[in-house]
Write a structure and sequence with these properties.
This protein is mostly helical and 63 residues long. It has one helix and two strands; from the N terminus they run ββα. A hairpin with a 7-residue loop joins strand 1 and strand 2. The termini are far apart. Bound molecules: zinc ion. Zinc ion binds next to helix 1.
Length: 63
Amino acid sequence: MKCVICGRKFSGYGNNAGPVAKGECCDDCNLKVVVPARIGMIYADRERSKKNVTRKNSTGTCR
Ligand SMILES: [Zn+2]
């Protein structure tokens, strides 16, 4: 298998590289690139909705 992120060949099962790339990536890229990107997306999503919902409250203490 070939990693769609770093382009290296790897053995065993690949990981879904989405949303970073389409295809399979190696464990290394999964841990270093894909997982952080997913977490980042979740946070970005939260931040966005937080701003929309609690625009009046700038302290960020309310949910
Ligand atoms: Zn890789």
